[in-house]
Amino acid sequence: MLIIIAVSVILLLPIISYLLQPLSKQKSIVFLVSFLTFGGFIFNFLSPNSLMGSWVQVTQSEAVSRIISSNKEFDSLLINAFLENKSSEDESFMLGVQVFYQALEVQSFNSAESILKTLNSKFISETFQVPIFNLLADLRDQKYPDLASSSLIISLENPPGCNLQSLQFFVSIPGGPDLNIAVKEIISPDINQVFRLDKSHSLVRGFDMPSAYLQQEMIKVEAQAQCGNSSFQAFKSIDLKYSKDNQDKLFFYANEWLKKEQ
Fold this sequence. Notes:
single chain; alpha+beta; Immunoglobulin-like; five-stranded antiparallel β-sheet; three-stranded mixed β-sheet
């Protein structure tokens, strides 16, 4: 912006000099042409809907870059006005994504979290929920790399009288979204082994085991056992607030299995 002002002043100097000359002719025409030219130039850059660019947008972009460099949170008025420069909701969202990754690239986590909060509150349509979860996962993985190995280790005893054919595990957050944070199925399982659930078993990246550990959620674990003509299920809950090293262990005893009605 300062460069534009400097160039404008330099270009105006000969015109001003000409107009100040007593013997100069056609001053009115020169003044009118200069006024229309530079007036249109200034209007173009001040208008949010300009044809050749916007001084307002340049100013906003510079302010966004300064905030990221300082690792500060975005002013809500500034960032909302900046996103609204785009004509469609999708383009506006993608502009916010660019700002997010610009902040993440230089590890400005406060700025990245700030724009993520804005995107989450501004773009509430289901269309944007999965992309927002992905942004959340990228922020979490870079800010808390130790969480990447978060896992739940499950051991169990065979249900009574069961010729075990398959096992399924479902992990959810009570009172949270109607979506499991981890799902795993094992065909012909060996119950002498342990079963591990981690972020690779999530249905939506970002809504997974590491996020549950990060937020210290209470989680519910459901186990289902298929035994030929019968099936069993068992439930347990864990408060991740008391977890150590982002790992927990569960054990399902034989007497905890409940036979499912066919």
